[in-house]
Amino acid sequence: MHIPSLIPFLVLGSTAASVVKRQYDNDFSGSGNILVLSGKNIAKADTSDISGCIADSGSLVTDLTKCGVFTLGDPQVSETFSSSARQCNFADPTTVPGGYALKCNSTMQKGGYWYSLDGYDPGPGLAFIWTGNLNPYYEATSLPAVGEEAPIWPYLGGPDPPTDRMYFMWLWKKLSD
Q1: Which of 52, 98, 106, 120 is spaced 20 to 30 A from 153 at the CA atom?
Q2: Could you tell me if 150 and 139 are in contact, meaning their C-beta atoms sit under 8 angstroms apart?
Q3: What is the distance between the terminal CA atoms of the chain, rounded to a whole angstrom?
Q4: Is 167 in contact with 138 (CB distance < 8 Å)?
Q5: CATH match for 23-176 among 2.60.40, 3.30.450, 2.80.10, 3.15.10
Q6: What is the pLDDT of residues 141-165, one digit of tens each?
Q7: Are strands 114-115 and 103-106 parallel, antiparallel or unpaired?
């Protein structure tokens, strides 16, 4: 194998090592709400872009009085988080096809992992929620009307993402340790 063909692996390896060394935002811990911001550019995200939040069921809602209260598992890379409705994950095959939507009444204990990288500071008591392999983005087919819910799932990416999707970022609003 030629050295130039190894460069992507060396860069990826050194990036992964540096991420593992210091990746966690201390505000992503305890209990909190998950606010949903419109957009797909974490560098330009602003709290004025809040479109809704995640309800106890795991669905996207626009009524901020319906935000669920979630509790994280491990304070660094949480393989679990839960609401009053039970464990939440992206692994339930009964959810919306095309990428499993978040569901919070699952009996499955694990099904993804969530973390917050240090260096993306939206403000005191707030932290962006990343999932999977360095993915801070989520998608839905619509923003629900007040009183309704919509499924939301991790951004699936690709060179030609579907045009019928809206893109979001999740923001942890810490309520307690």
Answers
A1: 120
A2: no
A3: 49
A4: yes
A5: 2.80.10
A6: 989 999 999 999 998 777 676 788 8
A7: unpaired
